[in-house]
Specification:
Blueprint lengths: L17 H18 L3 E3 L11 H24 L4 E4 L16 H11 L4 E6 H7 L3 H8 L3 E6 L16 H11 L5 E3 L12 H9 L13
Parallel strand pairs: 1-2, 2-3, 3-4, 4-5
Helix pairs in contact: 1-2, 2-3, 5-6
Length: 217
C-alpha cells in the first residue's frame, strides 16, 4: 500500500514511486510465498494531491502499465497471479486511480499478460456501474478473484441493501466460477456473528457446514 501515513494507498500507477513499488512488491511476494497464497492485489494508488485527474491520467497509465509488466514477469517466476481491483471514487476513495471494471479491463488488455487478472469487488462495481449480471458475464474471463459486501452499508450480504446475493452466487456457479469469494465487509457485530448469513445460505441450499451435501452424508 505504500506509505499510508503519507496518504498513499498503493503505488503501481503513481509516477516517481517506481522504486518503492518494486520494493513493496518483493515484500508482498515474500509474504505470499510464506503463507502459500498464489494471488497478490497490486494496488494502483491515488491521484497525487494537488493534481487534476485528467491532467495526470496519461502519465499514471504509462507508469501503471510499466509496473504491471514488471509485476507479471516477477510473479511468473513464483507461479503467482497479480490482481487489479477497481475501488469506487464515489463513496470509498475519491482519489483512487482505478475505479471501474471497464478501466481495469482496458489496462489488462494493454499490459497483455495472462498472469494478471481482475479482482472484482461487487460493492465497488455496484456503486460505480451497477449492471452486475452483464458485467460478471462480460468480464468473467478476466476475473481472478471475487469480493462481496452489501450496498450501500458494506455489511453482511443478508443485511438490508441493493444486492441479491443468492442470485449472484447462482450466476457465479452457472458461469463456472470455482475460486474463493472474499468477504470484504464490515460485520455489524463480531466476525463469527458476521458469518451467520453463510450458515443460513448453506441450509437454504440443503448443505451442511462447509458446503457438504446432506444427501452425501
Amino acid at each position: 500500500p505504500g506509505d499510508q501515513e503519507a496518504g498513499e494507498l498503493g503505488l503501481a500507477a503513481v509516477p516517481g514511486r517506481q522504486a518503492a513499488f518494486r520494493q513493496g512488491l518483493e515484500a508482498a511476494v515474500h509474504y505470499a510465498r510464506a503463507v502459500g497464497c498464489p494471488r497478490i492485489h497490486v494496488m494502483a494508488g491515488r491521484v497525487p494531491l494537488g493534481t487534476d485527474r485528467a491532467a495526470v491520467a496519461g502519465e499514471m497509465e504509462t507508469t501503471f502499465i510499466e509496473n504491471l509488466r514488471y509485476t507479471a514477469d516477477l510473479l511468473s517466476q513464483e507461479d503467482m497471479i497479480g490482481l487489479l481491483e477497481p475501488i469506487n471514487n464515489r463513496i470509498t476513495d475519491p482519489r483512487y486511480y482505478l475505479n471501474t471494471p471497464h478501466h481495469a479491463a482496458a489496462i489488462l488488455e494493454k499490459v497483455g499478460r495472462p498472469n494478471l487478472k481482475l479482482q472484482l469487488d461487487l460493492f465497488h462495481c455496484q456503486i460505480m456501474d451497477g449492471n452486475l449480471s452483464r458485467n460478471l458475464e462480460m468480464y468473467f474471463p478476466l476475473i481472478g478473484h471475487i469480493q462481496i459486501a452489501q450496498v450501500p452499508g458494506r455489511h453482511e450480504p443478508d443485511s438490508p441493501g441493493e444486492l441479491n446475493f443468492p442470485y449472484i452466487f447462482d450466476l457465479l456457479e452457472s458461469l463456472g466460477y470455482t475460486g474463493y469469494v472474499g468477504c470484504e465487509y464490515a460485520p455489524k457485530g463480531d466476525t463469527l456473528e458476521g458469518l451467520g448469513w453463510l450458515q443460513s445460505y448453506w441450509e437454504s441450499r440443503g448443505l451442511q457446514h462447509g458446503g457438504t451435501s446432506k444427501a452425501a452424508k
